[in-house]
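Lab notebook: predicted structure, single chain.

Context: the supervisor wants predicted structures on file for every construct in the current expression panel, including those that have not yet been purified. This is the next one on the list. No modifications to the sequence; it matches the entry in the shared construct table.
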Amino acid sequence: MDQTLIESGTDGGAALMPHPDVAPSSGGIATGVLMCVMSMSSIQFGSALSSPIINAYGPAGATWLRLVFASVALAIIVRPKVMSYSRSQWIGVLALGTVSALMTTSFFSAIARIPLGLTVAIEFLGPLLVATLGFGLSRQLLCPVFAAIGVLLLAYDGEEWVGNWPGILFAIGAGAGWACYILLTKRVGNAFKGLEGLSMSLLVAAVVSTPFGFAAAAPHLTAVGLLEIAGLALLVPLLPYVLEMVALRRMPTSSFGILMSLEPAIGAFAGFVILSQPMTPSQMFGTALVVAASIGATIFATKS
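Prediction complete. Output recorded below exactly as produced.
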């Protein structure tokens, strides 16, 4: 898998800023694996737990509220030097923040309409295509084909199609946004120190989503609701950012990429546990195909 993809996690809308390669510690791989699993679980279970928030405030409102809390919390920690950035740096974070806002809104709009496991699997096609198209017309392109077959199996429960066109289109939009995010992330990550690029892009994303999210969320806000959203913002995306950053310093990036390929399966499991979205054997096989395709892309990238 493309190095940029390997170093990009997702919550259905956010990615980890690239950072300089650091040799994995000899005794920390097991801890890194545990952190990866915790990060993916936090992302997917956090997405599942966001369902009541989405129902209460709508996808745009839920996106805006989460981005506001996450961006303010990270800005307090990172303290970006807003007035010191160049024109090219501002262009980068404006593009990245806009894509992030649209991607997250699309993801929330999708999981409001179709099962979480199907949404994550469709969204995963975006970065998978980014990872494989770089190899040219070769056998590596079979990976997204197998993943697409897996998505089709996920979309049919043996009796009827479980998705609807609006939900599927929103999931495709989230996948396209994730692919664009990956391409923009490398540029922004290289242009800023530490997590300043991530912090600035989240602030931009919060501002971009305000015209749509404020109108949807403001009339329904309560003190209890604000506390719930603050907790979800901690669960996704702040906790996964920290876990993935530390994990990448304890294990090879190829191993990290293979582990992150399990995310569609964890998303399906979170949908089953939290949202009572059952899966048939054929849907489980479809999830396995998506995971296998992502692992295959990672292995091909490692050998290239």
